[in-house]
């Protein structure tokens, strides 16, 4: 089942990501780079560690005053190509839809972590379940960059 660009495998109860690689005629411009990263719809932020690199590169494109259809300089083009090559690895990302392992929950706590630099910021929220048998599980709830 596909919804908002994310594929949900119902039988396994996991979210996965599928992306189309750029074709051979794809030109590395600011417009095309932005178009490609906008195709990755990730409202929960599961791809945040990957997406932050694209956002920082896009910031560099803006500060270098590139027009929308100007070719990227060598450094930016190299970084963009590396980012695109890693798109295939996103198909290996699987995020469990279920956050709770079982119904014997003793306590539930939310933990949020944040960090920032001159280039970007990030925040991630995890849920921590402590079960009656002493078992503990944690799951990523959401993250933002």
Give a brief rundown of this model:
This protein is α+β, with helices and mostly antiparallel strands. It has three helices and seven strands; from the N terminus they run E-E-E-H-H-H-E-E-E-E. The strands form two sheets. A four-stranded antiparallel beta sheet has the order 1-2-3-4, with no helix packed on it.
Outline the structure in words.
Helices cover 26% and strands 30% of the residues. The protein contains 3 helices and 7 strands; from the N terminus they run βββαααββββ. The protein has helices at 30-38, 48-63, 74-85; strands spanning 2-3, 6-9, 14-16, 94-96, 105-116, 121-131, 136-144. The longest helix has 16 residues, at 48-63.
Which features does this protein show?
single chain; 145 residues; alpha+beta; 2 domains; four-stranded antiparallel sheet; three-stranded antiparallel sheet; 3 helices; elongated
Q: What would you call the structural class?
A: alpha+beta
**Over all CA atoms, what is the radius of gyration?**
19 Å
Helix share, percent: 25-40%
So how many helices?
A: 3
Q: What oligomeric assembly is this protein in?
A: single chain
Count all strands and give the number: 7
Mean pLDDT: 86
Shape: elongated
Note poorly predicted spans. Answer: none
Spatial strand sequence of the major β-sheet:
1-2-3-4
Succession of helices and strands: EEEHHHEEEE
| Domain module tally | 2
* Strand coverage percent: 25-35%
The largest pleated sheet is described as: 4 strands, antiparallel
Termini distance? 27 Å
